[in-house]
Amino acid sequence: MMYRLGRWLSSLTDFTTLIGGLAIALMMLHITADVVLRFLFSSPIPGTITYVSNYYMVVAAFVPLAYAEKLDAHVSVEVVVERLPRRLQRHLAHWLLPVSATVLGFMTVKTWDEAVTKFQSGAALVEGGTTIITWPGYFVLPLGLGLMVLVLVYKFLVYLTGARCGLSVSEQERRREADVRPSAGVEGAHHE
């Protein structure tokens, strides 16, 4: 049961990361088209700045949060912890998971409330004479944060129960992570 749930979460985080990557690609195409049209034809795409800041960047930043947690790739600063025995570091890292989940849970609820408020008011921006609705972008934050909360809670439950973790990370992902991160002070919580 825990393993199947982990596989489902792993697939979901992979999919959301794909969406984040797609947002980056679309943002690059949109900006490139805007620049080309602006300088060659003096006819920029209306609302480019609004779309970039309220949609593309929000999706690219918040949707892949759970994937970064799956890889244990979030930035951490170990000043005191790195001096502790490795076993204690591992246990401490796992006991910080519910603390992080609680904080992010509150953030999820708060951003959801804000998104609902923006939806109810029909939030929009006017740029260059064009009205662009912005309320859908507000729902991205609680969705990204909420998925990260699920991953954190799942990882903690796996730690407590000793169950087999379904948040497997492929060898390619491990190699890519090793290339990006020079060294980890706390051993990763990768369970196979």
Describe the 3D structure.
The protein has helices at 2-41, 48-62, 65-70, 86-121, 135-138, 140-161, 171-180; strands spanning 124-127, 130-133. The longest helix has 40 residues, at 2-41. It is elongated. α1 (2-41) packs antiparallel against α2 (48-62), α1 packs antiparallel against α6 and α4 (86-121) runs antiparallel to α6. It contains seven helices and two strands. A two-stranded antiparallel ribbon has the order 1-2. Residues 183-192 have low confidence and may be disordered. 69% of the residues lie in helices and 4% in strands. It has 192 residues and is mainly alpha-helical.
Short description:
This protein has helices spanning 2-41, 48-62, 65-70, 86-121, 135-138, 140-161, 171-180; strands at 124-127, 130-133. The chain is mostly helical.
List the helices and strands and how they pair.
Layout (H helix, E strand, L loop, with lengths): L1 H40 L6 H15 L2 H6 L15 H36 L2 E4 L2 E4 L1 H4 L1 H22 L9 H10 L12
Antiparallel strand pairs: 1-2
Helix pairs in contact: 1-2, 1-6, 4-6
Largest sheet: 2 strands, antiparallel
Proportion of residues in β-strands: under 5%
In the sheet with the most strands, the strands line up as: 1-2
Q: Helical amount among residues, as a percent range? A: 55-70%
- Mean pLDDT over all positions: 86
Poorly predicted residue ranges: 183-192
Shape: elongated
- First-last Cα distance: 15 Å
- CA radius of gyration is 20 Å
State the secondary-structure class: mainly alpha
What is the tally of beta strands? 2
Number of helices: 7
List keywords for this structure.
2 strands; elongated; 192 residues; 7 helices; mainly alpha; 4% strand; two-stranded antiparallel sheet
